Each structure stands twice: as structure tokens, then as C-alpha cells.
Amino acid sequence: MKTPGKLGYCFGVSQAIEKAVAFAEENGPLNSLGPLAHNEDVVAYLREHRVTPITMEEVLSTAVGMNVGITAHGAPPETYDTLKERGCQVLDCTCPIVRKAQAVVSQLMDGFDVVIFGDPDHQEVLGLNGWAGGAKFVGTFNDLFTAGQGYKRLGLGKRVGVISQTTQIPPLFVDFVTTVAHIIERERFQELRVFNTICPIVAARARKTNELAKRVDLMLVVGSLESANTANLATVAKPGAGADNVLIIQNADQVTAALGNWYAEAGFPSREAVETSFRIGITAGTSTPIKTVNEVVAQVKEIFE
Ligand code: SF4
């Protein structure tokens, strides 16, 4: 059983959790605009420490002056304005790497038609879109094509700027940028400006996960189905471990059931044959606590060793 180096929270998530808990201890209950980490166990831990996720609609429909936390994913400028208007005390937990991407899109792409590579509904991307003053296109690789698999017309101007959601995977960003370049070459572009705003921690973990997946028979990705980073790690593990041999699990309680389903679906002759000869790799999203990862590792060791 192997892991791709250091796992557990990235510094952005760990900093946000520490700041929020310390704030709530000192100032009373804190409402975070969305979960501070896309991990159900972490959300439960934070609730115990009086940090509760809330939506913007709930902020608008409750009394003024509440304590509101911006998560590590950041928020658009309008959100800060609204919170200020409502007299909220704001704790800004935006990750410094996300803040840098916001600065790139708001300061270095002035006069450019902005294209954002990422999930249009993700909190971080909504924030980046706001700092861009409204991107001309937001989406992933497949969104660049029509149903007939031709290039979509993007209708971009002469100067085009492209950035990425920080938790995307570098090779996918390269494919995306290359395709955008092909598309705008047919339109009227003169200048293409690309900033690699992908988080280096995410990039390194993705690369190591991909390398590890090539050396094992089964990859377990520990994290929430809600986490963009966990989903992306599962994607980069697939070409190595094989698409059917990558399982996403949230915690140690799910290990036995997930493996049981996998044995049955894969049609292995005997469970014992798998457990004595298979090589297992374990990776985890950046919002998965190290405690959860260690519990999964212990559970897998108990089964396989
Ligand atoms: S994954 Fe990277 S960008 Fe996202 S919160 Fe963690 S350190 Fe920040």
C-alpha cells in the first residue's frame, strides 16, 4: 500500500479552519458563506466550534450585523459590498493563492476578454468571474465544442486572457488553452495572454497521484464527492490505475463496503486472491483531514496486510 507523499489539508484550507475557529471563540458564532472545506467531517467539526455554513440568501433574509466568513475559495467584490451594507463583521479566509488569481484577473487582464477554465458553478469560479467584471466564457474542455463536436464560436475580441480555477489539473488546462487558441485563430484575435493560476500544491498532488496510479492495481481517493479537487484527483488516477479501478471514499467507514462492491462488479474469483496480491494506492483531496487519511490507511492495512 502506497501514498503519493504528504497528504492532509493544504495550507489554504488549514489556515481558513484555524482562523474561523479562533474568530468564533473570541467573537461568537460565525456563519461561513458556504462550507469552509468541501468535506462533511470537517463541516461537522466546525459546527461543534460554532462555525456554520450559510447561503447569501440566508444572510439577506436575516437580521443585519451578523458575523460572516468568506471561505478559502473567495468571493466576488459584490459580496463584500453587500456584507458591508448589511453591517456584517467579515472574516476573510480567502486563500492567498486564490487572492492572487483574483488580482491577476482584475489587474492584469484589463482590456482583455477573459476566459476562465473551471466549473462555472463553483464558488471560487463565481468569485473570479466577479473580479473579472464578467468573463466572456467560463467552462471546461468539453464546453468548447458543439454537440456535433465542432469548435464553438466564442465571439471573443482582439485581446483574450485565459486563467484557470486554482484546483484544476495542469495537463487539462494546457488542452483547454490550446483549443481556445485554435478557436480564436478563426476569430479576430491579436493577443492571447495566459496565466497559470493553478495552485502548486494541487498540481504537485495531481502529478504524484498520476505517477502512483501507474504502479498500483487500485487507487482509493479519500475525499468528498462535493470536492472539486477530489474529483480531479480521481480523473488523473484513471489512466494509470485503469478507469474501473479508482474508488472515491469519504472515510474509513466506507472502505469495506466500497471494496466489497468493487470485488463484485469486477468479478474477481475470490476476495482472498485480491487481498493477498493487489497493490493499493491512496491519495486524498486537499480538504481531507490527515486524521481521516490515516484512518483509511489503517483500515486498508488491516484488510490487505
Ligand atoms: S488547494 Fe491551493 S488554492 Fe485551494 S485552498 Fe488549498 S492552497 Fe489554496
TrEMBL record:
Alphabetically ordered keywords of this record: 4Fe-4S, Iron, Iron-sulfur, Metal-binding
GO molecular function: 4 iron, 4 sulfur cluster binding; 4-hydroxy-3-methylbut-2-enyl diphosphate reductase activity; metal ion binding
Cofactor dependence: [4Fe-4S] cluster
CDD domains: lytB_ispH
Residues making up the signal peptide according to the UniProt record: none
Keyword Iron annotated: yes
InterPro entries: LytB/IspH
GO BP terms, alphabetized: dimethylallyl diphosphate biosynthetic process; isopentenyl diphosphate biosynthetic process, methylerythritol 4-phosphate pathway
Name assigned to this protein: 4-hydroxy-3-methylbut-2-enyl diphosphate reductase
Organism: marine sediment metagenome
